[in-house]
Amino acid sequence: MLHLLLLPLVLGPVTVCSHPHREYHLVKLTKSWGEAQQHCRQQYTDLATVGNYEDMKRMMKKTSASGVSQEIWIGLRKTGPTSWQWSVGESQSSEGVAEWTNWAGPPGSSHMCGGMNPEGRWLSEDCQTKQLFACHDDKKTSGKYVIIREEKTWREAQVYCRANHCDLASVRNQAENQALQHEVNDAVPQPSWVWMGLFRDEWKWSDQSKSPFRYWAGAQPNRDGNCTLYRPSDMMWYDRGCKGTYPFYCYKEIPQVTRQIVRVELKSHSSLNLNDPAVREAILNQIQEKHEGVKLRWIVKQDGNVFHKKEEKGKTEEDCEDDI
Question: CB of 291 within 8 A of CB of 14?
Fold first, then answer.
């Protein structure tokens, strides 16, 4: 029996990040929104959720290839309550809900869009107000915010940012808030404020996803109904009454695993051969017990070994080091 307690383990956090990938399925049967939801939940995962612009582009491409020109149900429905969210939608690190906030005062109850003043504080305004605005662009070499000195409504600003950069600016923490404030103060005549990607609504996804991504046509939603259709002719979203019958998009969630190489250092003060297959397997099992749900394997080098002695300051220590 191997006593691995003799081997103090020096190991950083082992993580394997899984991000959902939505595989879209266009169902050409015509059903009401509720019937479509039931069908998707029985045959797939749920009615389609659109998490970000990459999801939206895949849906556009699939629809174009299908030849379907009729409007198509997706899983967004007006159910309330309202919540503040970010235009950019889901990302690797966030679902898009505005969890960290920096309001100058309580948001106005009738104001549905948000901006930033020169002091870095947030304010709510009528979305139809024309104002300068801030985009974010991950391709920039210095900073990620771009201040546009043209006055537009919040929706017009969103369209501009998506066409020319990435999206309206989002702020997830104090450091990002300070970075955007700095850009605003450098670019905007004082005193003034700018639109950013903050908005609130009462539309929710069928699968209870918190994705705030929206792709409404101009002047939408306009209270035509509580359910959402994707229109292939202009590739935008429209609100409609939920009892109308249309084709619909379902999705099936496919987990995607991000693999990570982790360097492990083991210290042994015995003659134990760490490259013995039984010893290696026992060590791997011990590591996996500490990181439940993570699948690990050793990387075997060209000489057939996993572990190699580590040399420091002219002497060989009883250390072995390698990767998982």
Answer: yes
Question: How is residue 297 written in tokens?
Answer: 């394997």
- Which residues, listed in sequence order, are joined to residue 288 by a DSSP beta bridge? none
pLDDT for res 10: 37
pLDDT value of position 2:
45
Q: State the average pLDDT for the chain.
A: 82
| Per-residue model confidence (pLDDT) at position 124 | 95
Has residue 59 got a pLDDT over 70? Answer: yes
In the predicted model, what is the mean pLDDT of residues 134-140?
86
* Peptide bond before residue 255 is cis, with ω within 30 degrees of 0: no
Question: What letter would DSSP give residue 177?
Answer: H
Q: What is the rounded distance in angstroms from the CA atom of residue 324 to the CA atom of residue 313?
A: 26
Burial bucket for residue 309 (CB in 10 Å: 0-12, 13-18, 19+)? exposed
Instruction: Map tokens 């309202």 to a residue.
Output: 82
Bridge partner list, 47:
250
What is the C-alpha R_g of the chain?
A: 26
Helix (H) or strand (E) holding 154: helix 154-164
Q: Give the mean pLDDT of 76-81.
A: 92
What's this model's pTM, rounded to 2 decimal places?
0.68
Q: How far apart are CA 299 and CA 289, in angstroms?
A: 19
What mean pLDDT comes out for the span 121-142? 89
pLDDT at 158: 95
Q: What number of CA atoms fall less than 13 Å from residue 179's CA on the CB side? A: 15
Residue 253 region by backbone torsions, left for phi larger than 0, else alpha for psi between -120 and 50, else beta: beta
* Residues 51-84 as b or e (16 or more Cβ within 10 Å = b): bbeebbeebeeebeeeeeeebbbbbbbbeeeeeb
Amino acid at 244: G
- Please give the helix or strand (H or E) that residue 234 lies within, else none: none
